[in-house]
Design goal:
Elements: E1 3-8, H1 15-27, E2 30-36, H2 47-57, E3 63-68, H3 72-79, E4 83-88, H4 91-107, E5 112-117, H5 127-135, H6 146-155
Parallel strand pairs: 1-2, 2-3, 4-5
Bound molecules: 4'-phosphopantetheine (PNS).
The site of 4'-phosphopantetheine has 9 residues, from β1 and α4.
Length: 159
């Protein structure tokens, strides 16, 4: 059984993330979507909210939704899954992902990363931009799944 962990902040889940999950399921039998719980940061959505949004958006039983704190390599070891899936958007993502992948492999020689290119519809979408646009009253419909869109609307009613 081929299993991969798809880690991220997912604050919030975007259509770019969703595309990676859907395409990841064509390659892997199971995906663990692992939400980073970083106590040093104040996210827009709590870990519970982010997990619930992912679960609601991806009811597929091949998708497990989980969260983790601390180092990713400690989490992958605990899970016994050493393969991590990450999405790559533009060239700007490459440097960071290159550093992350190599540092993780330095920390755990068993650790391996697999990258998928995001589709042309979502290469410009980031959670950070979605948060900014939504919080300033902009329209993010089509950039995030309807579940997330509704939640953002509740949080930031249109003026
Ligand atoms: O969605 P993001 O914010 O790009 O995801 C980044 C993430 C969660 C994969 C990365 O920040 C991470 O793995 N954080 C856990 C802490 C850690 O392991 N840091 C060292 C990385 S080399």
């Amino acid at each position: 059984m081929a299993v991969a962990i798809y880690p991220g902040s997912f604050d919030p889940l975007t259509n770019g993330h969703l595309s990676i999950i859907q395409r990841g399921l064509k390659v892997f039998d199971r995906l663990v979507v692992a939400v980073l719980n970083n106590p040093k940061k104040t996210p827009m959505f709590s870990v519970e909210e982010r997990r619930a949004l992912i679960r609601e958006t991806c009811p597929d039983p091949r998708v497990e939704v989980d969260d983790f704190q601390g180092l990713l390599v400690h989490y992958t070891r605990r899970k016994g899954v050493h393969l991590v899936l990450r999405g790559l958007r533009a060239a700007s993502d490459f440097e960071y992902e290159f550093q992350l992948a190599n540092m993780n492999r330095k920390l755990d020689p068993e650790f391996e990363s697999v990258f998928m290119m995001t589709g042309q519809d979502s290469f410009y979408i980031s959670s950070q931009l979605v948060r900014e646009v939504a919080s300033l009253g902009g329209d993010v419909e089509g950039l995030v799944p309807p579940t997330v869109f509704r939640k953002l609307r509740e949080r930031f009613p249109r003026k």
